[in-house]
Amino acid sequence: MPLQIRAAEPADVASLVQWNAAMAWETEQKQLDPAILARGVAGVFEQPQRGFYLVAERDGTAVASLLVTREWSDWRNGDFWWIQSVYVIPAARRGGVFRALYAEVERRAAAAGAVGLRLYVETENRHAQATYAGLGMQRCHYFMYEMPLAAAS
């Protein structure tokens, strides 16, 4: 059955929270605090400048989602769109679901005048890396560094 890609709605928050928790566990064996995660997902809907979620549906049932955030590039005088929090339910994997979501992000980004798409991937996640390369994405020459400043609340 064909996929439908749509903007997520507040009614999707419970699924988005569940899928983010599953993704964190599957990729990093990281247990996220459900209350913080729920507030974080809801925060995207409360302040749309933070980004937006897309949901993929098959036969009216949501099977995947991703988050898009924006980063201003002074070097390029434009926004990079970051693809984050990608999750496809196990039964829908390897069936073009992410490819369809990616195509919609690419379409929207081009229409909005974005200068590029970016994402980060776990260094050991070879399947995801191959998928992204297959879509024409190129590995960057940057390392990512992080310093947590405060406990999220």
TrEMBL record:
Enzyme Commission number: 2.3.1.-
Alphabetical list of InterPro entries matching this protein: Acyl_CoA_acyltransferase, Bact_Acetyltransf, GNAT_dom
Organism field: Rhodanobacter sp. IGA1.0
Protein's recorded name: GNAT family N-acetyltransferase
Lineage: Bacteria, Pseudomonadati, Pseudomonadota, Gammaproteobacteria, Lysobacterales
PROSITE patterns: GNAT
Pfam families (alphabetical): Acetyltransf_1
Keyword set includes Transmembrane: no
All copies of domain N-acetyltransferase, residue ranges: 3-152
The entry's keywords: Acyltransferase, Transferase
GO MF annotations in UniProt: acyltransferase activity, transferring groups other than amino-acyl groups
Keyword Transferase attributed: yes
